[in-house]
Amino acid sequence: MIPDAAARILVVEDSDEDYDTTEDAAARQQVPYALVRVLTAEEGRAALMTGQRFRLVILDNSLPGDQGDVFLCALRSHPMHCRVPVVAFTASGRQPERDALHTAGVNAFHVKSVSYEDNLWTLEMIFTYWLRAVAG
Amino acid sequence: MQTVSNDVPWSAAPYSIKRHGVQITNCDSEPVQTPGCIQSHGVLLAFRLVDLSIQQVSENVGRLLGVQADDLLGKPLATLLGASGAQRLRAFLESEPTDRNPMHYQDLTLGSKNAGFHLIVHTNDGVGLLELEPAELDAAEPDYYSLVKKSIFRLQSAKTVHEFCQVTCDEVRQLTGLDRVMAYLFHEDGSGEVIAEARREDLHSWAGLHYPAHDIPQPAREIFKRIWIRPLPDASGAVAEMAPLVNPDTGLGLDMTYCSLRGASVMYTEYLRNMGVGASLTLSIRHAGSLWGLIAGHHLTATSFPWQVRAACELLAQTVSLQLAAVEEREHERYRARMQAAHLTTLARVAQNGDLSRLTEPSPSLLDGIQSGGAAVYHHGEWFTTGDVPGRSELTALAEWLQPALSSAVTQPQRVYATDRLSEVYPAAAAYAEVASGVLAVPLSRAARHLILWFRPAVARTVTWAGNPADSPTVLGPHGPRLTPRSSFALWQQSVAARSRPWTLAEREAALYLRTLVMDLVVSRVEELAALNADLASSNEELDAFAYVASHDLKEPLRGIHRHAALLKRDIREGRASDAQAIERLDAVTRLTVRMDGLLDALLHFSRVGRLELQPQMEDLNTVLAESIEMLGTQPADAACSIRVPRSLPTVLGDRVRIREIFTNLISNGIKYNDKPERWVEVGYIEPHESASLVASDTPTVRTQTIYYVRDNGIGIAVKHRAQVFGIFKRLHPRDAFGGGSGAGLTIARRLVERHGGLLWLTSALGEGSTFFFTLSATEAGR
After folding, report:
1. What is the mean pLDDT of residues B226-230?
2. CATH value at residue A72
3. Which residue blocks in B481-504 are alpha helix, DSSP H?
4. Quick one: pLDDT band at residue B5, thresholds 50, 70, 90?
5. Total structural domains in chain A?
6. pLDDT band at B2 (very low <50, low <70, confident <90, very high)
7. Which of B28, B305, B356, B492 gives B379 a disulfide partner, CB atoms 3.0 to 4.6 angstroms apart?
8. In a domain, A1, yes or no
């Protein structure tokens, strides 16, 4: 892994506790990228326009206002961000939502658990896989 | 008859009963109107109308009057009647309607024997016919007028056709003194049935006797459409031929249709003699131009039917004919009503649970409607029966066979399948002809997998031939036993061996009507069930989506709690948890449980709103709104906000508590999602007749209702989010923005409106404000 010091990990997550868990996982895996948090799809779109590069996006689908797939569409049609891996980490595993995300071009889909340890483990696996195993 | 074919003996020469034999095989073409002969107890003269000259005279004139025919032919009638007699006749012909209408006009003592005669005259096709009937001129006559008057009165009180015919028989027997008088009804197939009878007590009853159609040959039926009465006072009496046989003026045999003296067919007299009958009197009963039946009177010995008796009977026959239609219609009406009542009662039972099998339950069952021996209903692959019906497998085979006919009956809704002779078209039915010679069938579904069948037994009944000697001839005529009631009945039985009483139009109509009712019932139940299913399916889907969404929203604080608990545990285990940190975690847990509690409360409230019965009353919306504002006033968030009410609100029928909640939810939203320095919320209404730019063209309701609205100058809602705002726990902004909240307010408000039968919708301009509209259509209906 050759870290791009300027790159960030974008976390689209409205729940404070869930975001904290993401931070916990990143810390435990010593992820060499800073996390950027947005609470809504709207804010996420704004983040795409800042010129900031992202190495990975963790996306919650159940958001206030627009759902995660709306943000994903915007990301995939953005020339600078269209190839960034986007991993959905969301509460609802319902088929319509999975389909919407896959259509919009999500790279992986994970369902949140109630268990903190499980969520931590899932997020660590996500970081390990997408930041280490997969060539950036 | 006029249609004389070449292979009958009388095709070459003018017909005369005396000269030409009639056989059973050719009696259907016997020229009964021009028999050439008369009954020899009277004398018939045919005369020329212009000069009253005698053209024809019956050959018995010598025997009865002592005057020779040759002395009369060509002579004026005055020769016989005297100058004054002829004068009187001429005057009568000129003044009275005698054409085809025999009228008694004078009694005279005539001829060399000075015998008394009734003189009866009529004209037919320009020929005068004078009938002389021997009479005891001094004999006292009964008061026929009073007798007939009494008879007619009794007829009027008869309620059924059967009763009517019984009264007729009784009265005719009273008037005539005949030994037996029968009412004889013609069925559709031309066969006859004795439906009523009055008889001398010692005679055996013939009621219920049937005759095949050819027992009354077509020519006789035709004549009975024209005359009311046919007397034959001496069935064994000789006939007297007309001299000459052909009328010199017309060149034809004399038309005796209207003569009471007309000679009878030998077939008929032989039949009567075979029955041991000495005299007969027949009256016709006509109905709408056709022959409905006959009143047949028999006397064991020869008798006489003086013109007074005949006139009285004729009047009675005419009255009977006139009244019969009304009696029959009344009876049909009663029958129709009875069928209808039975069908409706039966159907009401079915309607309770849509189970067609209940059609066959007593009582009333299907058998109390259309007269039948049995009925069967095929429903969901099973037979349900009542009364006498074929076996299950026979029913199934019959239903299979009926399928094509019934399918076409479905496409032609006016059709039912009806037959009174099933085994003729469906030979397998011969096996159960006893119970099901007649079938009436209506399909109840397109595929005819559901149907109703009515069955009628074979009609042939047994007539007990008692050993009354008067009934059986001692000597049979030349045609043998064929011309007897016994063989007639046997022949009829043979012809109807596997036939039922036919299904009448009224019965077919009743079956059709029942079918319509059942199909309506079935269809409405199917629609009901389909709608219910659709409702259930959609509410299941809704519930599914709802539960999913709700549970995941509920899990969010749970994840937080789990996280804090897990971290606290780890810190403690690793011995690096400070008290302050621990308390911080526990505070977070407490906060999250409060949030979760809020979500659960909202969820419970929402579900209760769906279940609770409304308590609608007339409510002044101004009061309801004031209460609502008062409740909001306790909340700190709405400090700098004005609530405008442009005009006083109406009074509506609705649930006060629920409407208050609608207002509270909508108004609090208007206040909360507002970033203007001067926040306002407006509450108003638009009446149906008012045009309002406020109401967008995409208003989801017909403008027949008052629309209430709550309008604000808040942040507005983007078009793409307008549907989402009503989703449970769906928020458009992060949790802590705009004062927070569970995200259930609009979901609950919409459900409250829907409980009132109304709709809730919105228009909005982003950054400028939103307007929420709702109707309370239950209140409209209540007005």
Report:
1. 93
2. 3.40.50.2300
3. 485-495
4. very low
5. 1
6. very low
7. B356
8. no
Is the Cβ of A118 closer than 8 Å to some Cβ of chain B? no
**Nearest CB partner across the interface for A64, out of B556, B565, B731:** B731
Question: How confident is the model over B119-161, as pLDDT tens digits?
Answer: 999 999 999 999 999 988 877 778 888 888 888 888 888 888 8
- Domain shared by B84 and B53, yes or no: yes
**Report field, pTM of the whole predicted structure over 0.90:** no
The verdict on a CB contact (< 8 Å) between A17 and B564 is: yes
pLDDT digits (tens, 9 = 90+) for B349-363: 887 776 777 888 887
- Do both B601 and B688 map to the same domain? no
Residue B254: is its pLDDT beyond 80? Answer: yes
Average pLDDT, chain B: 84
Q: Give A16→chain B minimum CA distance, Å.
A: 8
Nearest chain B Cα to A22, which residue? B563
Q: Are B418 and B504 within 8 A, CB to CB?
A: no
- Which residues on chain A are in Cβ contact (under 8 Å) with B564? 17
**Considering the domain boundaries, does residue B306 fall inside one?**
yes
Contact (CB<8Å) A65/B564: no
Is A3 within the bounds of a domain? no
Q: Distance from A63 to chain B by nearest Cα, in Å? A: 8
Instruction: Please give the Cα distance from B181 to B168 (Å, whole number).
Output: 9
- A20–B559 C-beta distance less than 8 A: no
Q: Chain A contacts of B732, Cβ < 8 Å?
A: 64-65
Please give the helix or strand (H or E) that residue B327 lies within, else none: helix B307-353
**B437 DSSP 8-state letter:** S
CA distance B706 to B687: 5
Q: Which of B134, B159, B183 is the last residue of a domain?
A: B134
Q: Which of B100, B134, B168 is the last residue of a domain?
A: B134
Q: Which domain holds residue B721?
A: 613-782
Q: Tell me whether residue B372 is in a domain.
A: no
Q: What is the DSSP letter of B27?
A: G
Lookup: tokens for B31: 């020229």
Confidence tier at A77 by pLDDT (50, 70, 90): very high
Of B293, B347, B292, nearest to B520 (Cα)? B347
Its domain, for residue A80, covers 8-133
B754 contact A CB<8A = no
- Average the pLDDT over each of A13-22, B9-18, B745-754 and give the range with the smallest value: B9-18
User: How far is B159 from B167, CA to CA, in rounded Å?
Assistant: 11
Side-chain half-sphere of B128: how many Cα atoms within 13 Å? 22
Structural domains of chain B, count: 4
